[in-house]
Amino acid sequence: MNAARDLPKVVAGLAIVALALLPTAGLPAFYDSFVYLVFFWVSLSTSWALLSGFAGYFSLGHAAFFGVGMYTTATLTTKAGVPFLLTIPAAAALSALLGVGVGAVVFRLRRLRGELFALLTLAVTFVIGTIILNTPIDGGGGVFMSAVPLPHLMPTPTGTIYILGFAICVLTLVTAWWVAHSRLGMGLFAIHDDEDVAEAKGVPTFRYKLLAFALSAGIAGAVGGIHAMYVGFLTVAGTFELTVPLYVVLMSVLGGSRHWLGPAVGATAITTLLYAFISGGEAMIGRAIVGLILIVAILWLPDGVIPAIQHWAKKRRPQPAKAQAEVVPVVPATVRPIGERHILEVRAVTKRFGGLQALAGVDLDVREGEIFGLVGPNGSGKTTLINVISGHYPLSSGTVAVDGVSIGSLAAHEIARRGVARTYQIPRPFANMSVLDNVALAATFGGPVRAQREIRDEARHWIGFTGLGSKEEALPAELNLHERKFLELARALAAKPKLLLLDEVLSGLNPAEIDNAIRLVRAIRGQGATIVFVEHLMRAVVELSDRIAVLNEGKLFALGAPRDVMRDPRVVSIYLGKAYAA
Amino acid sequence: MMDRTSAWPRRRVLAGMVGATAVLGAPAIVRAAPSGTPVKVGGTLSLTGFLAQTAVIHKIASEIMVEEINGRNGFLGRPVEYVLLDDQSKPDVARSLYEKLITVDKVDLIQGPYATAPILAAMGVAQRYGKVIIQSSMGIPKLQTYDRAFPATPFGPEPDKTYPNVILDMMAAMPTPPKTIVVLTSKFPSAQFMAQGMRDQAEKRGVKVLLYLEYESGNRDFGAIAARVKETNPDFLWVGSLGLESNQVLESLRKLDYTPKNSFHLYPAPGPLALSPDGDKVLCSTFLEPDEPFMSRPGMKKLASEFKEKATKANLPYSTIDAQACGMISEWQILEIAVNAAGSLDDEKIAAWLKKNRVTTVYGSLRFDGPFNHGDAAQLVKQVQNKEWKVVWPTEFAAPGVKLIAS
Description:
The complex is a heterodimer.
Chain A: H1 2-21, H2 29-51, H3 62-79, H4 84-106, H5 115-133, E1 143-144, H6 157-180, H7 183-193, H8 195-200, H9 205-231, E2 233-234, H10 236-239, H11 243-255, H12 262-276, H13 283-300, H14 305-316, E3 342-353, E4 356-367, E5 371-375, H15 382-389, E6 397-402, E7 405-406, H16 412-417, E8 420-422, H17 435-446, H18 452-465, H19 481-494, E9 499-503, H20 511-526, E10 530-534, H21 538-544, E11 547-552, E12 555-560, H22 562-567, H23 569-576, H24 578-581
Helix pairs in contact in A: 2-6, 2-9, 2-11, 2-12, 3-4, 3-5, 3-9, 4-9, 6-9, 7-9, 7-17, 11-12, 12-13, 17-18, 17-19, 18-19
Chain B: H1 10-25, E1 39-45, H2 52-71, E2 80-86, H3 91-103, E3 109-110, H4 116-129, E4 133-135, E5 149-151, H5 159-172, E6 180-186, H6 189-204, E7 208-215, H7 223-232, E8 236-243, H8 245-255, E9 263-268, H9 270-275, E10 283-286, H10 300-313, H11 323-342, H12 347-356, E11 359-361, E12 364-366, E13 380-385, E14 388-393
Parallel strand pairs in B: 1-2, 1-3, 4-5, 6-7, 6-8, 8-9, 9-10
Antiparallel strand pairs in B: 10-13, 11-12, 13-14
Helix pairs in contact in B: 2-10, 2-11, 3-4, 5-6, 7-8, 11-12
């Protein structure tokens, strides 16, 4: 059993040793050269995927980081006499620094996501190229490196380049594997699917993106440093060209850009295909055939080769007997006494969007163990208040404190780590993660630091608690609305929150599902959580809440016991009009 | 004007000329058809990618030359087989493919690729395996540092000094010699290299450089540059252009109602510039044109005819033989003569023979014993006259009745 489990590791180990020894096998140098180019593209496309595939920040600027690496090595070796090997870490460091510099500016601006980020990174490429072209770094004449001595790491110069390319390739794949299986990778995958939700679940999105950008750019820089020596003559036009980002995108997409091994598979396939048609007589036809193969592959495998294989393997695996998705909470609700301590204190909170005053000086206290209903007509500021408390929107003025600690100026992920969890009116699960991974992420980033096994056990507990036990491996798209609402709850609960903010968790459910949900919310309170509960469904609000606050036009309108508040003619009037209130 | 004579021993010159005449001019009837195992000559060209439009000219020229050589006596009596691979316009691919040609395909000889970056990538491989490499399109001779690399195009070892002086000689011979010059150039390595030379040599010869301006290769908007040219109003405009940049510069100047008094263009697309309404009387660099005296060189008429036929069949927009095609023809002529004269496929012997002898090609008599294996410079000036390119300088290379037309 252990032998079978260790087989892939043994095969990988043997492959690494065999590949490392290839230059000593006495094969024609072309094979060293060709395999080096495979390593080159594997490293470059995998490094691109660390940011663009994992975190979804689609970059067209990889040539900038690769080019900075190339020119760092070229400049240091030809103008400063620095030994070639020493220039590679310098190339990596400089490229990483550039990545961090760009990221530090770009990642602060929410609007610079998607195609704007792609265009901006492309612009960075042009700017860097222009600087290098118009300074003594290149100046337009190119940099010729024929006089730079190459260390004798292998019997031949091509062998030496090969072993360096191999080393960086192994390092890149190990890094990608580590990232994909680490807390960082989990956070990046969440950022890819929904960055705002990731932040609200406790993922330090800004820091993680910067880290991914630094890794991505740093590896590209190191690859560039080695490749400068392989090419031998650098020009700005040849270095900062569009084909580099286009190739890495194509390779990553073909193999599967969200999988650590996907870009490597794509890079190997495309490089090999390009070399399959190199004869002068078939050059044009060959390129057309390669293009056709890629089009067909991408049309048939839109998520890439590796995810397609995984999907196929998953379908072949015997499935456990599916239980009916009965979402009745199994944990009996036990009523705990409401404490005197204030878990949440909201003081004079205002929130403006330009000229619109969404919250106009709200004061609220929520007591420990309480279910606190927040109601009001549409546009009254309920969801805005939830967004302000959870850190999604910064405060315009006022203070918010949780458990006596002011959180008003904190980022959303820090607020999440202080025990505030929330759900969304329209469920926003991480679309490419299974139910288990969705919940495990919330437990990882929102809850206390624990081992992954413990976290996943905890996640399974909350999945079972919300009745989704048979759906652990399902993707959110396979769930119905009811189940997705409960997935929202499971995610929130997995963070072991002090304060749970539920935003219209009952909307869109049928009466039976609402009854289930009400039982579930009670059960959650039975676990010790304090709940702020935004809802339009008055039956549920009255049944569940210990106290109700009514918001109207961004102000606290009424506060008290549910039945008292709902009978207040002023409250009736803002819901139904003065005729009903009379 | 520069001195074109050299101190070469007459015997060597004669030996080369006799060899060339025997190879190129002798009737087919006296030659034996090549037989035996083919001699494999490997090379790459940028058949796809951004250099493909020009590389296809080299491919056609190579096909013509392989047919020609096999129609004579091949290499050492053996037929020649051309192993051509596509380097995709990428130097890294070029490097790997030359390694393939040498270490896997085991070619006997290699030919150089097209364009400076792939040539330098291939040159490194050739150097590691001691192969002779002959190339025709590297405009910066000082980069050709490998002992067995030979140029097929007569740039001379220092074209940044010699060629500007050819142009300055021509300027001095004009009825009203230009006293001021503006030098514009693309930041393309070989163009920039020549532009800097033009600026320096003009200053040395007392021509005042009013403006020296570099623009990024691939620039399309020349409005601001044209305004500065108009403002300085030089007697002579020198443009280190590539492709269609010259057309764009001249069009931008026309939009400002300005026509340069005299203008020179380094590496423009010849057809579009000759046919452009702005192209009349513009000057340009060349090594030969399909005109006299070049057409009287051995085999030239046949080569020009074959090229036209094949280029037309391949739907090339400009099917007249020119310096691009002749560069590759010259490569094959040098290799053919050197192999047969050295009597060996051994690269060391071929290189040694080339360093000691002259070779007559479509470019005239070339030698390889100077710095960077370059010999005499033979870059000429041509001019658009009635929508056709005519060599106008030095005057001995102008066709009968053709004269430089100055402003």
